[in-house]
Amino acid sequence: MPFDLTSEHVAAENHKKLKWVEEDYEHLGRQLSRRGIDIESLTRRAAAFRVSVPSWGLGTGGTRFARFPGPGEPRNVFEKIEDCDVVHKLVRSTPGVSLHIPWDRPDSPAALKAFAESRGLHVDSMNSNTFQDQEDQRLSYKFGSLTHTDPAVRRQAIEHNLECLDLGVKLGAVSHTVWIGDGGNFPGQVDFRKALDRYMESLREIYRALPAGWRLFIEHKLYEPAFYSTVINDWGTSYYCVRELGEKAFSLVDLGHHAPNVNIEMIVARLIQFGKLAGFHFNDSKYGDDDLDAGSIKPFQLFLIFNELVDAELSRVPGFDPAYMLDQSHNVTDPIESLMTSAVELARAYVQAHLVERGRLAEYQERNDAVMALQTLKSAFTTDVEPILAMARHRSGGAIDPVGVYRASGYRGRMAEARPAEARLGAGIV
Ligand code: RM4
Ligand code: MN
Ligand code: MN
Description:
The structure is a single chain. It contains 15 helices and ten strands. It is of the alpha/beta class and 430 residues long. α5 (151-171) runs parallel beside α6 and α8 (264-273) runs parallel beside α9 (299-314). The longest helix is centred in the first third of the chain and has 28 residues, at 7-34. It starts with 6 loop residues before the first helix and ends in a 12-residue tail after the last helix. The relative contact order is 0.16. Bound molecules: beta-L-rhamnopyranose (RM4) and manganese (II) ion (MN) (2 copies). The site of one manganese (II) ion (MN) has 6 residues, from loops. Beta-L-rhamnopyranose binds next to loops.
């Protein structure tokens, strides 16, 4: 029988599995204590882990070839918040929501804020969109936005970002994320240096308007939609820009925005060292900006990234305060299932990174013992921490088996009836 996702129903579903989880947890606790690790402190860390969900990830995504909508997709930002609520109820680590404007521009920001807060959710980051034209838009972004050759187009794009800030204040957001699609398809099309100068001029204006206590995040990406050059193409350019802008500007790392085989964990370490890591758009990829579920393709890479993050956390790097966000496009899965699974995979990498015996690793590094250094990382990465994650969710009121409970609840089927297909959002292709 389908059921509403109340805490009683989640607890009842957990009850069916709790004995096994307790048994596994106890066994893992004994194993870890042999390594001098207290399982309870790890479970507390797992329960405290947070990652925000992207409003644009709740609908089915798509590619430039097609979009295959799923049943019961959210049709507006309120319905997206309802789905975020389901994700958070079951995994208990996703109270934050990143909003994309204008896709999710609310008629009443106050009503949206109250709607989210009544569910224990909040808006954390605003995302501007100057990479496509909107219906009521005066000038086109076909040849760029914040870096366009025409000052009138740049002005329009700046104004849009300023609107995001205003809206964000009303919604209680604390950061603004800027990603532009600006670039060129052909050699010679764009003057590289002039385009970057124009970017800085536009960004300075947005930076100056940043509300008190906010941070500005900028996102680099090597290609797409422009196929030959992009203006903010890599972390070096991004770092230059945020350093020029000032102390409230930071470089955001989207895992899908690098060339294949780039050592992303090292980029992360560099940005930490330079005090300029904004945080992440987590996702996974095989080839490009694939926006697949976090941890699905390269789990070891994800672990190595968290190894750097946890190392910075434990060694108390000054000012280290990264924002963790998901940025995925769900083309063949139920977005709620993908988001829950991804949130769990991030917590897994985070907990595993806490298993690294850092004192020993440092010794091996000093002695240039490559084999033992790698083994130290591998022994953390190959430890199955599932009982810790399950216990942390259970103790926080979430589900031991989020996907299982979600499916059993019949939520998607109910939404398919409550949200008929017509008037569905087109804005899913990201
Ligand atoms: C971009 C980038 C941005 C996201 C858009 C939808 O590739 O990752 O973060 O806002 O897609
Ligand atoms: Mn992104
Ligand atoms: Mn992307």
